[in-house]
Amino acid sequence: DAGITQSPRHKVTETGTPVTLRCHQTENHRYMYWYRQDPGHGLRLIHYSYGVKDTDKGEVSDGYSVSRSKTEDFLLTLESATSSQTSVYFCAISGGGLADYEQYFGPGTRLTVT
Amino acid sequence: GDSVTQMEGPVTLSEEAFLTINCTYTATGYPSLFWYVQYPGEGLQLLLKATKADDKGSNKGFEATYRKETTSFHLEKGSVQVSDSAVYFCALSSFSGGYNKLIFGAGTRLAVHP
């Protein structure tokens, strides 16, 4: 257990509304990641962070933004949710006592956009 | 670019049967290789890993050997249990763009019946 929590665990929202998902870790890991999981695609990286206020885009970043103002929190924001963003979102961590190449995952947030 | 291909599921087995889930990869350089497992309603858990050619990763009766000559990392277990029913993801990690990038296969669902 790498001490990762995600909130909320489930959310239903309407098209066009903003949504923020939170990832919280308790063990000072340097790297944090947001993925989305969709059938037939495995997991795809949305954004990642390599330190406080240091973030960069992954392969499916359009429509998403992130922020990391504290080591322990990494927020994912959908500025204006669309139905194509219905998915399960996973946060992951690495570094800071773990090998940089080993990632450990949170329990996930199931988001439904209606 | 780097990629991971794993056999499509679902794989359906009887308890105590032998399991093989095939995984092949394409990568430049020398990636680390992983198998993750996802039980229903949960996040991904790291099952085993191998960091260089000919390494064998093992955990909970599962094994996989890093075969550079065939670019493969097949998952095996000698005798599956009902509790092994889950989705299994093969993944590779390579250093690219300043961070360790994790690339996943699409996942293989395993169903074990008593």
User: What gross morphology of chain B would you assign?
Assistant: globular
Q: What portion of residues of chain B is helical?
A: under 10%
| Structural class determined from secondary elements of chain A | mainly beta
How far is the first residue's CA from the last residue's CA of chain A? 33 Å
Name the biggest interface.
A-B, 23 and 25 residues
Describe the structure.
With 114 residues, chain A is mostly beta strands. Chain A has strands spanning 4-7, 10-13, 19-25, 31-38, 42-51, 54-57, 64-70, 73-78, 87-94, 104-105, 109-113. In chain A, the strands form two sheets. In chain A, strands 2, 4, 5, 6, 9, 10 and 11 form a seven-stranded mixed beta sheet that branches. Chain A has a four-stranded antiparallel beta sheet with strand order 1-3-8-7, with no helix packed on it. In chain B, strand 5 and strand 6 (44-50) form a beta hairpin. In chain B, the strands form three sheets. In chain B, strands 2, 5, 6, 10, 11 and 12 form a six-stranded mixed beta sheet that branches. A four-stranded antiparallel beta sheet of chain B has the order 3-9-8-7, with no helix packed on it. The interface between A and B is medium-sized, with 23 and 25 residues.
Task: Please render the helix and strand layout as text.
The complex is a heterodimer of chains A (114) and B (114).
Chain A: E1 4-7, E2 10-13, E3 19-25, E4 31-38, E5 42-51, E6 54-57, E7 64-70, E8 73-78, E9 87-94, E10 104-105, E11 109-113
Parallel strand pairs in A: 2-11
Antiparallel strand pairs in A: 1-3, 3-8, 4-5, 4-9, 5-6, 7-8, 9-10, 9-11
Chain B: E1 3-6, E2 11-14, E3 19-21, E4 23-26, E5 32-38, E6 44-50, E7 56-59, E8 62-65, E9 75-77, E10 86-96, E11 99-104, E12 108-113
Parallel strand pairs in B: 2-12
Antiparallel strand pairs in B: 1-4, 3-9, 5-6, 5-10, 7-8, 8-9, 10-11, 10-12
